[in-house]
């Protein structure tokens, strides 16, 4: 029975090839647009997720306060309110996984004929752990390097390229001013952060080296920020609270006095970015769905025309024993075939378009099995939904009227 | 009588018109036994087509009872009446009503699709029926490739394919010339000889003369119901068994 019905649906569609193809085109464009837009949207979500994970997860940044000189206030991180001792105290709190004090500044590096200006992160070995940042080559410095303030450094990919070009930097020595530094290792590439800044353009060295041998500071032990990694996302709010209480107590701030530090929750920033791209990809999908809807209405329109044209045929079929559900199934099947074939073509075009976007615009696109499956389900759904009314109309025809129809 | 194939009692049918209800059938009662060949005549608007539609389970009476092959049609649901149309009845229309995009074989086997019969058997039975009406070798042609008389023979083959007890023919010769009409009536005669009951609407006396019983409708009532006198003028009436026109070696022309 189904074989015969498929055969008949195929014949009916073949009888009006151009019309069938144009109807199908509506579905092709609709599904193609949805697949392409989903691929772009999911691609955007994917790259944001990559960026977020490159920052490290569940991270707080505690910034030291600002200085105020005669009413002129400097930015956050400039006052020497945070110390390595603060960092060590925070490490003792419940729910804290890793703590890394960071003293940063910019330096001019020289190697042979090349020189390069970059940011220094003076920190402890825990820094790499907190930011989930592996080494591409060489080894990391150790706690004993921190204690001894040795002149060693880990360099980012961008620094490696600009200063050492094709040479292997591990074991080489660069100079900052007159002081020589040995490259212990090269960090794995991380790409841009959410602001679009190149995260690979940096040098990581022991915090003590940065404090004493590179920048110097009138306040021994002070750092500009402390990186704190909580043990889990759930642990973040309590950690934030206890960290604030601890620092206020350690800094001897009176009740009502402002904090002389700022706690920034990077995960919240990341969540906002993720939410933004999620909304964007939803929006893209919604706009594309409109064309799918239009395609569905096209199917309904053509099926209604088809039912009218074939009124007499329907009458004949009823007279020779077709039940209502046979007629219903026949027209429904036709609508579903049109939409499923249209969907398959649209899928190919959508995926092809996504690959083209990837090639030409260098955008990340993600075509997931889920979105392909969803496209097929939607197409079958559209076929059933928009085919049902015309099919029902056909099935409800009065056979006598239908037979008389010219 | 339990042996009646068709029995209608006190059949009424009224249509709603802007000028009030119009009675198309008024208290029609009729019994037809298996094997009968009945011609129904009457002027336009006499109710004969309405009567035929009710017999064919395409329409329902306003009042009265209709028993077809022992079952009360009034009590059947739409699927059951569709089954009756499919298995018990065969329709032959004035306009042939073949589906133009289907081969003759597919047209003839269409009722079998709705009986849920498999492809191979459908094909075989369609071929058998097409052979019976002398068109076996055109099984894969489209209806547009053959003449009107040949199309009507295909329509008869389609009506027969599910081995019905009753053939309902609504002016089957209305669109055909007199020679072809004789040919088609020859087919009906041969079928009736095989024991198939035939009810036929016509307003041509020549055609009605082939039937064994004549019923006349006028203004929604039966005004005449009597056995037909044996025909004398028609040439084919001479023999006991009606030979089919294409029997006896006469070659069919190729499809035009």
From TrEMBL, chain A:
This is FtsX-like permease family protein. Belongs to the ABC-4 integral membrane protein family. It comes from the Bacteria. The chain crosses the membrane at residues 21-41, 282-307, 328-357, 363-389. It comes from Candidatus Desulfobacillus denitrificans. Keywords: Cell membrane, Membrane, Transmembrane, Transmembrane helix. Its main location: membrane. GO terms for cellular component: plasma membrane. The keyword Nucleus does not apply. It is found in: Cell membrane. One of its GO terms (molecular function) is transmembrane transporter activity. Residues 20-245 form the MacB-like periplasmic core domain. It is a multi-pass membrane protein. Residues 286-399 form the ABC3 transporter permease C-terminal domain. PANTHER family: ABC TRANSPORTER PERMEASE YTRF, MEMBRANE COMPONENT OF TRANSPORTER-RELATED.
From TrEMBL, chain B:
PROSITE patterns: ABC_TRANSPORTER_1, ABC_TRANSPORTER_2. GO terms for biological process: response to antibiotic. One of its GO terms (cellular component) is plasma membrane. Keywords: Antibiotic resistance, ATP-binding, Cell membrane, Membrane, Nucleotide-binding, Transmembrane, Transmembrane helix, Transport. Gene3D superfamilies: P-loop containing nucleotide triphosphate hydrolases. Residues 226-256 are annotated as: Disordered. It holds the Pfam family ABC_tran. InterPro entries: AAA+_ATPase (IPR003593), ABC_transporter-like_ATP-bd (IPR003439), ABC_transporter-like_CS (IPR017871), ABC_transpr_LolD-like (IPR015854), MacB-like_ATP-bd (IPR017911), P-loop_NTPase (IPR027417). GO terms for molecular function: ATP binding; ATP hydrolysis activity; transmembrane transporter activity. The keyword Zinc does not apply. PANTHER family: ABC TRANSPORTER ABCH.1, IMPORT ATP-BINDING PROTEIN. Belongs to the ABC transporter superfamily. Macrolide exporter (TC 3.A.1.122) family. This is ABC transporter ATP-binding protein. It comes from Candidatus Desulfobacillus denitrificans.
């Amino acid at each position: 029975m189904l074989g015969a019905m498929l055969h008949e649906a195929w014949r009916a569609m073949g009888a009006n090839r151009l019309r069938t193809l144009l109807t199908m085109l509506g579905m092709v464009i609709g599904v193609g647009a949805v697949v392409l837009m989903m691929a772009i949207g999911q691609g955007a979500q994917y790259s944001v997720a990559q960026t977020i994970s490159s920052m490290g997860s569940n991270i707080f940044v505690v910034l030291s306060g600002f200085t105020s000189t005669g009413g002129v206030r400097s930015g956050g991180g400039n006052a020497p309110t945070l110390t390595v001792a603060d960092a060590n105290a925070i490490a003792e709190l419940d729910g804290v996984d890793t703590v890394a004090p960071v003293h940063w500044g910019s330096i001019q590096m020289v190697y042979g004929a090349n020189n390069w200006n970059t940011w220094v992160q003076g920190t402890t070995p825990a820094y790499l752990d907190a930011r989930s940042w592996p080494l591409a080559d060489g080894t990391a410095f150790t706690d004993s390097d921190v204690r001894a303030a040795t002149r060693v450094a880990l360099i980012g990919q961008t620094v490696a390229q600009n200063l050492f070009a094709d040479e292997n930097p591990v074991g080489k020595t660069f100079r900052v001013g007159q002081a020589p530094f040995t490259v212990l290792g090269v960090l794995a590439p991380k790409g841009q952060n959410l602001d679009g800044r190149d995260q690979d353009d940096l040098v990581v060295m022991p915090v003590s080296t940065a404090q004493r041998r590179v920048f110097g500071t009138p306040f021994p032990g002070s750092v500009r920020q402390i990186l704190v990694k909580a043990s889990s996302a759930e642990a973040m709010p309590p950690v934030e609270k206890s960290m604030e209480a601890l620092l206020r107590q350690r800094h001897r701030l009176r009740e009502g006095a402002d904090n002389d530090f700022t706690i920034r929750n990077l995960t919240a920033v990341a969540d906002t970015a993720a939410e933004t791209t999620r909304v964007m990809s939803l929006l893209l999908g919604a706009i594309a769905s409109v064309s799918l809807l239009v395609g569905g209405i096209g199917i309904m329109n053509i099926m209604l025309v088809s039912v009218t044209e074939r009124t007499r045929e329907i009458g004949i079929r009823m007279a020779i024993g077709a039940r209502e559900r046979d007629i219903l199934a026949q027209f429904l099947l036709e609508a579903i075939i049109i939409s499923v074939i249209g969907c398959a073509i649209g899928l190919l075009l959508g995926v092809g378009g996504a690959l083209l976007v990837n090639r030409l615009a260098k955008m990340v696109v993600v075509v997931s099995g889920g979105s392909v499956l969803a496209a097929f389900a939607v197409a079958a759904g559209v076929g059933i939904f928009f085919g049902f009314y015309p099919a029902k109309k056909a099935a409800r025809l009065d056979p006598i009227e239908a037979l008389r129809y010219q | 009588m339990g042996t009646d194939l068709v029995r209608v009692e006190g059949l009424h049918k009224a249509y709603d018109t802007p000028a009030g209800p119009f009675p198309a059938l008024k208290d029609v009662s009729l019994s037809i036994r298996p094997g009968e060949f009945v011609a129904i005549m009457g002027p336009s608007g006499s109710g004969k087509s309405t009567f035929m539609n009710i017999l064919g389970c395409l329409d329902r009476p306003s009042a009265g009872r209709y028993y077809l092959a022992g079952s009360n049609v009034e009590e059947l649901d739409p699927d059951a009446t569709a089954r009756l149309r499919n298995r018990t009845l065969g329709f032959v229309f004035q306009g042939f009503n073949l589906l133009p995009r289907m081969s003759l074989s597919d047209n003839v086997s269409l009722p079998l699709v709705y009986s849920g019969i498999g492809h191979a058997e459908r094909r075989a039975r369609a071929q058998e029926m097409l052979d019976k009406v002398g068109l076996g070798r055109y099984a894969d042609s489209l209806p547009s490739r053959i003449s009107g008389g040949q199309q009507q023979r295909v329509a008869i083959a389609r009506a027969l394919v599910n081995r019905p007890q009753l053939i309902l023919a609504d002016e089957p010769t209305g669109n055909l010339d007199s020679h072809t009409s004789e040919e088609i009536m020859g087919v009906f005669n041969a079928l009736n000889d095989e024991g198939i009951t035939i009810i036929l609407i016509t307003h041509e006396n020549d055609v009605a003369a082939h039937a064994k019983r004549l019923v006349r409708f006028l203004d929604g009532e039966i005004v005449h119901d009597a056995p037909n006198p044996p025909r004398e003028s028609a040439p084919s009436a001479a023999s006991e068994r009606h030979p089919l026109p294409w029997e006896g070696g006469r070659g069919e022309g190729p499809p035009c």
